[in-house]
């Protein structure tokens, strides 16, 4: 409907407005009452309304022509060319009709009136049309830039997520390797857990997952790590039952837990907790470290990867605090759900 109005109705109505404006101005200047003349002359002049389609086509053609130019020229020159085309077309069509239908032929003020008014009206039409086209083009370019930026973001996120696989797999296979010498049954159980973890990492491609599912995955990872750790390890895991169906991006908690198992020593304990506080996921991991402190590498894949993913996925909606003391190491992560 909108296209029908713009293409078939508006050009005629716009031409009618121009025609009435010209006639009223002429009546004021000359005192000529065009509504009192023979109706046939008015009907003949009204055929000029059909030229509205020609003006619309011509101005749209000029607009498309200038938009196709690889290097747009000065705007003032464009407007001068458009004005010249309008004047030539107007003088070639309207003035001859005025000469035959006017009471005193075509006088000088008729030439000025019939040239100036259509030119101003149709130049205004072109300016508005050009402004709308520029806004639409700018909007489309902005959408394209956002799409490109989003594609780049998704590519980087996929790369960061993929980095977990070899890093995690290396540690898990080491566990299976050493368990084979001690107990084939235990190694078999570890492989089953490993299979569950890899299935989650490799085949769950959703943007976000339920936080309950993420915590279930984390529990499987903890079980896998527990099987390879010394039996003297004191492990405490506390999960808030309210954390269930809230959405969260996957694999953000794993690096902190992985880090704790990797560097646990000294009194040999690890504490892990997850709770829901005022709409925030609050995740805490702490572990004892050896008396001879093992420094956590600042540039390690896990934590640096995590910081980057958090910055991309939760800008301004997360907090990550790392504390490394002489006796323990702790990490606190808060994410707005």
TrEMBL record:
A Gene Ontology term for the protein's cellular component: membrane
Domain spans labelled Signal transduction histidine kinase internal region: 156-232
Keyword Methyltransferase annotated: no
Alphabetical list of InterPro entries matching this protein: Bact_2-comp_sensor_kinase, HATPase_C_sf, Sig_transdc_His_kin_internal
UniProt GO MF annotations: phosphorelay sensor kinase activity
One Pfam family here: His_kinase
Signal peptide region: none
Ranges that cross the membrane: 12-35, 47-66, 78-99, 111-128
NADP recorded as keyword: no
Domain of life from the UniProt record: Bacteria
Keywords for the protein's UniProt record, in alphabetical order: Kinase, Membrane, Transferase, Transmembrane, Transmembrane helix
PANTHER family: SENSOR HISTIDINE KINASE YPDA
Protein's UniProt name: Histidine kinase
Organism from which the protein derives: Chitinophaga fulva
Lineage per the UniProt record: Bacteria, Pseudomonadati, Bacteroidota, Chitinophagia, Chitinophagales
